[in-house]
Amino acid sequence: QLQAFGGGLVQAGGSLRLSCAASGSIFSINVMGWYRQTPGKERESVAAIRWNSGSTAYTDSVKGRFTISRDVAQNTVYLQMNSLKPEDTAVYYCAATTRTNDYWGKGTLVTVSS
To answer: Under a CB-based contact definition with an 8 Å cutoff, are residues 63 and 56 in contact?
Structure first.
């Protein structure tokens, strides 16, 4: 129901754009967001966007480097990641929160080499 794309290998300082499309079976989205997880660590929220207003929030470590955006018509959320650092290496997950459910997509691996 959530399909994420765009992970890969990039050198430090480079950019990647992740995208995540929510299937038509997901209705009344309130918030969509991106999370990331590295082995041995808890999953952390990276960025989130309110579906109706477009207001955004970021974890401190990515502010000024990552931008979350959405295409309401396409039910798709994006994460533009610039100035990538090795510490950004993780599996990135997208998530959608509706009035009644939370949905998670399969992760996409982002590897940033130094």
So the answer is: no
SS3 category, 77: strand
Angle formed at CA 41 by CA 35 and CA 46, multiple of 5 degrees: 20
Q: Are 106 and 35 in contact (CB under 8 A)?
A: no
58-90 pLDDT, tens digit per residue, is 999 999 999 999 999 999 999 999 999 999 999
The DSSP 8-state label assigned to residue 61 in this structure reads G
Asked if residue 53 has pLDDT above 80, the reply is yes
DSSP sequence for the chain: -EEEE--EEEETT--EEEEEEE-TT--SEEEEEEEEE-TTS--EEEEEEETTT--EEE-GGGTTTEEEEEETTTTEEEEEE-S--GGG-EEEEEEEEESS-EEEPPPEEEEEE-
Residues 58 and 100: their CA atoms lie apart, in Å, by: 24
Per DSSP (E only), the strands in 51-89 are 56-58, 66-71, 76-81
